[in-house]
Write a structure and sequence with these properties.
The complex is a heterodimer.
Chain A: H1 14-45, H2 56-87, H3 94-117, H4 125-130, H5 142-165, H6 170-186, H7 196-231, H8 235-256, H9 269-280, H10 282-298, H11 306-329, H12 333-339, H13 344-372, H14 385-420, H15 425-433, H16 435-464, H17 482-488
Helix pairs in contact in A: 1-2, 1-3, 1-13, 1-16, 2-3, 2-5, 2-7, 2-13, 3-5, 5-6, 6-7, 7-8, 7-11, 7-13, 8-9, 8-10, 10-11, 11-13, 13-14, 14-15, 14-16
Chain B: H1 16-42, H2 46-69, H3 77-111
Classes of the chains: A mainly alpha, B mainly alpha.
The structure holds protoporphyrin IX containing FE (HEM) (2 copies) and fe (ii) ion.
Chain lengths: 494, 125
């Protein structure tokens, strides 16, 4: 029985019920990310704020680890969400998947508590096992790493078995192969070596080959499914695009890894390899933005879920701007020599992570909210539409504002600290004390609050959207059924 | 950076801005060209396609400016070539592929007896 407009789990399939659990934790951790980002930002302005209680390094660590974990939760949720529909088969081994979710969530909680209350330990192997591994973004201690691997194996079993028992589509195939690479790469960040160059060499396999190869391909597949669902674009079209994007993404992104091997003690040939391939990485991102605009335009933006579609379009643009434009601006070694180690990098990091990955996860939160309330109407003229529009605006303006502030700071640093003063200690402080830098840090904080306001509105909206609505979702059929679907749909009251 | 045996000649201080700016313009012109090309072809408006090529000309100018500022000589010339060729042909190649899939889809639909409102724009046939 579907009850439209009421939040009722009987509106969801088994896989979807597990997906909303993942989404819920993701949303909470997104909040934690923002909170600790604000604390770390404040410490740039007031260095003794929370000094000795929650130092900058702790806040920064929680900020970016929460980000990686909430995004992974979002991806796992999204895959559970679309898996049954795509494979036309219920999730195989769902019970095991449920257990894995609880184990993972318990582990994450313990890790966060240890981060906050133990914080760090002596430089020995016990610390690596039980407190923190000390590799940026994936600092989880080794016991948790092993737990994560086990949980991911269960998840992988769910995915693989479901597609095998059901049907293998192009999207399904890409997801299965890509998740294998994604999980395998995680292992590269787990072993210990006392040589910092070697350590960084492997650590980048995880970080770069995640965000610029395997995550990109995963969201490409998720996006393809999302466009079919929200716009009714045909499978043939989205899958053709998906294959092109996968080829271009892996073709440039894998060796693009070299742009992190300029200055860490790796051989000189990485200058050419890294420069060449990473400079080509924006091409698939250009293709993606054209693709989604083209499809949205062709369907006259007529979609079954306006907020989700808006966030999918934000994803295409954000990925293009944050990764494509901002990435390319500092990727050639001839200029990276000066931007490396300045606020240029966080400028790119904030826009790219938000633009490429926060956005598409939020789109799926909206798909989930819609179905959870009985596939409720979410077209034009939905009650309280200002909320999702303002949440989107505030979050985007907030992150763009932070990005611009950091860009100015980074530009100033690359001049004064890196170029003029040759990366000396004195140059570092001269750059930090420059008015441009100081003001930029204030602007970053102000736009951080804007971002936080957008987050709060987003949470409110996700809880409230569709409540009391009685119409069901507009049907978006196959392209050739468009006219028919339009006639059936409840009239919009815009 | 003199120790990099000539493989790498860093950007001059006065060229920082032009480097960032031309790099951004490469990508933006690349997107503009792809978009105008796709729209023009799709809606059978050759004028738009020509504007697309104008955007590509902008891309060429941006690539050359960037190449000058970042000293892309020697081996690095290949990067300039790859960008110029890659951005030029990508929209063409994608277009052909898309047209192929759309055409295939039309056949399938006709076979299924539901080929009424064809998803393929008249201009494409
Ligand atoms: C969605 C995709 C991307 C995300 C999420 C992303 C994110 C990031 C982050 C967070 C860093 C900082 C890492 C650190 O802590 O040191 C970084 C570094 C970097 N990114 Fe990206 N990036 C993406 C795509 C790209 C692309 C496509 C390019 C090039 C065209 C690029 C070029 C770079 C470069 C050159 C650095 C190194 C900066 C330095 O250390 O000097 N990124 N990226
Ligand atoms: C809400 C306001 C936010 C504030 C005030 C904030 C602040 C900060 C600060 C102070 C750092 C440390 C920078 C440093 O080491 O110098 C940081 C790092 C980072 N933040 Fe945020 N952040 C916020 C939101 C976000 C969001 C929404 C994302 C992405 C979805 C994000 C992604 C990152 C990343 C990837 C890094 C590491 C960057 C690097 O090392 O290059 N932050 N943030
Ligand atoms: Fe990278």
């Amino acid at each position: 029985m579907t009850r439209v407009g009421v939040l009722d789990s009987s509106n969801l399939t088994g896989g979807q019920r597990l997906a909303v659990k993942y989404f819920t934790v993701a949303l909470v951790l997104f909040g934690a990310q923002i909170l600790f980002g604000l604390l770390a930002g404040l410490q740039y302005l007031k260095p003794d704020f929370l000094y000795g209680v929650l130092d900058f390094n702790v806040n920064r660590m929680v900020h970016i680890n929460a980000m990686v974990v909430w995004m992974l939760y979002g991806f796992l949720g999204s895959v559970y969400w679309l898996m049954e529909d795509e494979a036309q088969h219920p999730v195989v081994g769902l019970k095991l998947g449920e257990i894995a979710f609880w184990v993972l969530t318990l582990a994450v909680t313990v890790v966060v508590l240890v981060y906050l209350f133990v914080q760090y330990g002596p430089g020995d192997i016990k610390t690596i096992w039980f407190i923190n591994e000390g590799r940026e973004y994936i600092e989880a201690p080794r016991w948790a790493d092993i737990g994560i691997v086990v949980v991911v194996l269960v998840f992988y079993f769910n995915v693989l078995a479901t597609f095998i028992k059901g049907r293998f589509t192009g999207i399904g195939g890409v997801i299965v192969l890509d998740l294998f690479a994604l999980a395998g790469l995680y292992l590269a960040g787990m072993f210990f070596t006392p040589n910092i160059s070697i350590d960084q060499y492997w650590w980048w396999w995880v970080i770069h080959l995640w965000v610029e190869a395997t995550w990109e391909v995963l969201v490409g597949a998720i996006m393809a499914w999302g466009l079919m669902k929200t716009l009714g674009v045909s499978r043939r079209i989205v899958q053709t695009w998906l294959y092109i994007e996968v080829a271009l993404m892996f073709g440039s992104g894998i060796l693009g890894l070299g742009h992190h091997y300029f200055w860490i003690g790796t051989p000189d040939y990485w200058f050419e390899i890294g420069g060449f391939f990473s400079a080509l990485e924006p091409i698939p991102l250009v293709a993606m933005v054209v693709h989604s605009l083209y499809d949205a335009g062709k369907h006259h933006m007529k979609s079954s879920n306006h907020p989700a579609l808006a966030w999918l379009i934000a994803h295409a643009f954000g990925n293009f701007l944050g990764a494509g434009v901002w990435g390319f601006m500092h990727t050639l070694p001839q200029i990276n020599l000066y931007t490396h180690g300045t606020q240029w990098t966080p400028s790119h990091g904030h826009l790219a992570f938000f633009g490429a990955y926060a956005t598409i996860n939020i789109a799926f939160f909206y798909l989930a909210a819609q179905q959870w309330r009985g596939n409720v109407y979410m077209g034009a003229g939905i009650a309280g539409a200002w909320r999702w529009k303002w949440a989107l605006t505030l979050l985007s303006v907030g992150v763009l504002g932070m990005t611009m502030a950091l860009l100015i700071a980074g530009y100033e640093q690359s001049f004064i600290e890196r170029a003029i003063n040759g990366s000396t200690w004195a140059g570092y402080f001269e750059a930090q004390n420059h008015p441009w830098f100081q003001q930029a840090m204030w602007w970053r904080q102000i736009f951080g609050w804007v971002t936080a306001a957008g987050y709060l509105l987003l949470v409110w909206d996700l809880l409230a959207i569709g409540a009391g609505e009685t119409r069901t979702a507009t049907r978006v059929g196959h392209e050739s059924e468009e006219a028919e679907a339009g006639a059936e749909a409840a009239p919009a009251t815009a | 950076m003199e120790d990099c045996d000539g493989m790498l000649q860093p950007v001059e201080l006065q060229d920082f801005f032009i480097t960032f700016f031309s790099a951004a313009m490469v990508i933006l012109f690349g997107a503009l060209y792809a978009m105008l090309f796709a729209w023009g072809r799709l809606h059978n408006r050759p004028r738009l396609v020509w504007w697309g090529y104008a955007a590509y000309a902008g891309l060429v100018a941006a690539v050359l400016t960037l190449a000058d500022a970042t000293h892309l000589t020697g081996l690095w010339t290949w990067l300039v070539v790859a960008m110029l060729v890659g951005y030029l042909v990508a929209p063409h190649a994608i277009w052909h592929l898309c047209q192929g899939t759309h055409a295939g889809m039309e056949d399938e639909e006709a076979a299924a007896g539901q080929g009424r409102a064809s998803p393929v724009h008249p201009a494409q046939r």
